[in-house]
Structure formats: C-alpha cells, structure tokens
Specification:
4 strands, alpha+beta, about 30% helix, 2 helices, Alpha-Beta Plaits
Length: about 70
C-alpha cells in the first residue's frame, strides 16, 4: 500500500479525476482518496508491485493536481 498527499482537490469531481488517472497505472489494484477540501488529501493506492513516485505524480498531474511534499 502506498500513501501520497495531494494538494488542490476540493470536491468529488477532483476525487474522480485523480482516481481515474491513477487507476490506469500498471499494477494498480485499488485507489482511495480521503478528501480534505482546500488542504492536503490522502491518496491511498494498493498495487501488485511497488509504484514509482514519478509515475504517480504524472498521473495526478494529468488530473490537474500535484503531490504534496
């Protein structure tokens, strides 16, 4: 299980966009987002193999958001 902070998310549409992009990564089995509107939301990913942070960052960026440091 991998956990990442995501900044800039404010609503359910944001959650859906990030979930869709991250779910498309190879090996991803499930994605959960705990939304903190206007703060740092938590992205939890279950995958068959370790995920590259850069790949996750690119997927989140594609959805219009960014990983928090």
């Amino acid at each position: 299980m991998n956990r990442f902070g995501v900044s800039g998310m404010t609503c359910g549409h944001c959650v859906a966009a990030v979930t869709e992009e991250v779910s498309a990564l190879p090996g991803v089995e499930s994605v959960r987002v705990d939304l903190v509107a206007g703060g740092t939301s938590t992205l939890t990913i279950t995958s068959a193999s370790p995920l590259d942070r850069a790949a996750v960052a690119a997927a989140v960026d594609e959805a219009g958001y960014e990983l928090a440091d």
